[in-house]
Design goal:
- The complex is a heterodimer of chains A (105) and B (117).
- With 105 residues, chain A is mostly beta strands.
- Chain A is built from no helices and 9 strands.
- In chain A, strands 1, 3, 4, 7, 8 and 9 form a 6-stranded mixed sheet that branches.
- Chain B is mostly beta strands and 117 residues long.
- Chain B is 0% helix and 52% strand.
- Chain B has no helices and 11 strands.
- The chains are: A mainly beta (105), B mainly beta (117).
- At the A-B interface, β3, β7 and β8 of A face β5 and β10 of B.
């Protein structure tokens, strides 16, 4: 089975840049999506096909994917960005990373 | 786009439950759908997929042979029949709509399934 690995947690100061890595074998050959999930809420798609933002998603969210690592970058993190973030790739079916809890403080 | 799950509840180990999800605001019959679950305090786990026509269905290894996904496009609904339920099937079950073919672009609010004696 295909596995995606994320760091369990990450802290960032308000206004600073946060980068969340997602690693998997030859991940750059697959499309990667990212989801944001706040406590008690459903996941929300924030990046699809490596770097595209759905309408309504702030420009401070960006994505890249190359080699074995995809990265979600939050440029100028805000308190409202505190959430769990999940990467997802398609390996015949959706595969999710374990999630990264982002704290803004 | 709106997705609304229903049917969750408390069931004993070994029991059965059917949950459903209604969709609106999009062309339901042309969109593949998935079920994704989340155990308490844990991450997201994909459970099952069904194509728009219902002709293709896939399952996670953890539920294959116990769960059955189906859809009724005339009712704009998908279903997940869950049999031989185990304690580790406990969690929130979300239905999600296929986006670009590689992502899930809309999610319901989830329905809680608790398997416990």
């Amino acid at each position: 089975s295909y596995d995606l690995t994320q760091p369990p947690s990450l802290s960032v100061s308000p206004g600073q840049t946060a980068s969340i890595a997602c690693s998997g074998n030859k991940l750059g050959d697959k499309f990667v999506s990212w989801y944001q999930q706040k406590p008690g809420q459903s996941p929300v798609l924030i990046i699809y096909q490596d770097h595209n933002r759905p309408s309504g998603i702030p420009e401070r969210f960006s994505g890249s994917n190359s080699g074995n690592t995809a990265t979600l970058t939050i440029g100028g993190a805000q308190a409202v960005d505190e959430a769990d973030y999940y990467c997802q790739a398609w390996d015949g079916r959706p595969v999710f990373g374990g999630g990264t809890k982002v704290t803004v403080l | 786009v709106q997705l609304l799950e229903s049917g969750g509840g408390l069931v004993q180990p070994g029991g059965s439950l059917r949950i459903s999800c209604g969709g609106s605001g999009f062309n339901f019959k042309t969109n593949a759908m998935s079920w994704v679950r989340q155990a308490p305090g844990k991450g997201l786990e994909w459970v099952s997929f069904i194509s728009g026509s219902g002709g293709s269905r896939y399952y996670a290894d953890s539920v294959r042979g116990r769960f059955t996904i189906s859809r009724d496009n005339s009712m704009n609904r998908i279903y997940l029949q869950m049999d031989s339920l185990r304690v580790d099937d406990t969690g929130i079950y979300y239905c999600a709509k296929d986006g670009s073919g590689y992502d899930l672009d809309s999610w319901g609010q989830g329905t809680l399934v608790t398997v416990s004696s």
